[in-house]
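Example 3.2
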Amino acid sequence: MKPVGVFDILKIGVGPSSSHTLGPWQICRAFAQGLEDKGLLDNVHSVRVFLYGSLALTGQGHCTDIAIMMGLSGADPVTVPLEDVDNIPRLITSTGRLLLSAKRDVHFPPASAIVYHMSERLPMHANGMTLIAYDEQEQEVLRKTAYSIGGGAILWEEGEDVINEPSLGFPETGKDLLALCDHGGASVSISQAMLKLEEQLRPKAETKEGLLAIWRVMESAVFRGCHTIGVLPGGLEVGRRAAQLATKLMPNSYELDETAWFEAIGSCHKDFSHTLKWVGCFALAVNEENAALGRIVTSPTNGSAGVIPAVMMYYLYFTDQKVTQDDLIHFLLVAGAIGSIFKSGATISAAMGGCQAEIGVSSAMAAAALTEGLGGSPAQALMAAEIAMEHHLGMTCDPVGGLVQIPCIERNSMGAIKAITAAHIALNTEAANAKVSLDDVVRTMWQTAQDMNSRYKETSQGGLAVNISVRLPEC
């Protein structure tokens, strides 16, 4: 299997869901590119997409239909203008035509071209989909089956373009990670160990610039979310709250540009009450942007995208540390390392493990990264990750109306606060005395995920999703 590095855990993309939006988008984009690469594009008259399991059950609430249209159109979620995410699907819906890979005009009326098999599930994962391109005689030109396995990662059905690569020594367990940090008795930090591993994939300067680009997207999402009012799309009529809270916390700052606004945060009150409110505000801001199909960083998923930016803002503006760009890079390297351990040993897909796999993992990632940033040892960082996840075990994924809004947005604020708390507990504890290891909690999380009823795994068939009365959502 491909090694799990930092850019497999942290990805720039478009909301609202990594597994239901970003993953299907990438699958459809690869399918369209495959048609072009095989010289089949000119033979295609129409395309149909069949969704199964969780993708079908919450696909419309998670804007999977929009992702399908964008992906088949060849748009890159990293760079596509956000207005196109609205304009392109609207044009396709009104005309029933789609420009496949931005080159071939094909028949694609979304109402019939996207088929939701809500009572069926493909064997490999809850998020399965099959794509079929047809010629003018309705004969198949190309058929592919793929899975969106969490965090925007995709997997083609066995026998279809599966790539096996060496692990390159990337850690799969907490024990592996500690061994990397103590290789040959020369103790290094988690971030130093991970940066060295990433050099096997690309030059160090490229890794650093890529991580700074990720931070800039996170930072911009915080700013936009704290400066945008209104109601989120989808039919729940959920009002944005981050901008109102930010204005209350820092009056007369709304007209400041992005640079000046962040500078003003650095000089605002840092008492416990204000700090708590700001951290919650930052997390709300990012996930309101995510819910509105804004550009965010999957970390490790879109539904949990607000936790790490909120904790990084706390680290940058509400601690006594003089945080540099290298410190921010190191923070993301540590977060990526912890995310990769959960991905290797359990799951980061709510469709497989419930919300513990999203908010729980993101909180663990942030807790470990903050611990190192505040001077903690590798063992203390892993302890912080364990503490954060331990107190998310069993958390269900029950999105109301199939949207990443209730309870998802508020859960990011809670996950951020738990991460900060876990870090401070670990920093004031001798890690050698810990009774529970990170590997223990990863194993427990996976066992819990397997025991969890499917109603609580992003199907909107249990929990709040069936107890809160809403009208049918539409993106």
